[in-house]
Design goal:
It contains 9 helices and no strands. By secondary structure, the protein is mainly α.
């Protein structure tokens, strides 16, 4: 029986996602320069010719991943700013982050890949420069949103008295360190509690 258009679209979407997952894995392990489309296709289990039906170039594929990260950061920033709450949005984000670390879904490699981008900044090449610049802007936006959350909470006695920018830096450094530790230790990784991580910013656990 021939496949329906819906089945073709579903298969194409599934293959595209396999390509993205393979690219994340290889970019994370080898760096951008150490990966080509042939290697990504092999990792995804498809032919080299097939991969070009989904992404015309390695730059396009890389930009797609970077754009996803930028969108995610902006969504996170809105979750911190589009509310008058302090503890609940912070706790909710950390719960999701720790759950991602605990599951073998590729999230750890994605976090590490984006950390590579943050560390290296804009690399040579105008095709990738714009996407990376946008990701860095998104990162600044979410950092600013956390600073705003800290300052909002300070007026209610919920967040620690240290400078808000310093606390935000420590918070994101902790998240990055947890992703690196999870990658290094694998199943031996012991995830901290939500309260331990949010305790970097909060005076005490509360539901305010």
């Amino acid at each position: 029986m021939p496949r329906t258009p819906e089945q073709h679209r579903a298969m194409r979407a599934a293959t595209r996602e396999r390509v993205r997952t393979a690219a994340i894995r290889l970019f994370c392990r080898r760096g951008y320069a150490g990966v080509d489309m042939r290697a990504i296709a092999a990792e995804a289990g498809i032919s080299t010719g097939s991969i070009y039906r989904h992404f015309a170039t390695k730059d396009e594929l890389y930009d797609d991943l970077v754009a996803e990260a930028a969108t995610g950061l902006r969504t996170l920033a809105r979750s911190f700013t589009d509310t008058d709450l302090v503890v609940e949005p912070l706790r909710g984000f950390v719960e999701v982050f720790l759950a991602d670390l605990s599951r073998d879904t590729g999230a750890v490699e994605f976090y590490l890949l984006m950390n590579q981008v943050f560390a290296s900044g804009v690399e040579a090449g105008p095709e990738r420069g714009a996407a990376v610049e946008d990701l860095l802007r998104a990162h600044r936006e979410v950092t600013g949103a956390v600073v705003t959350l800290i300052e909002r909470g300070r007026g209610r006695g919920l967040t620690r008295p240290a400078p808000a920018a310093e606390l935000a830096t420590c918070f994101f450094a902790t998240l990055g360190g947890l992703a690196m530790t999870r990658s290094a230790l694998g199943e031996a990784f012991v995830a901290p509690s939500v309260a331990t991580v949010t305790g970097i910013l909060l005076v005490e656990e509360t539901t305010a």
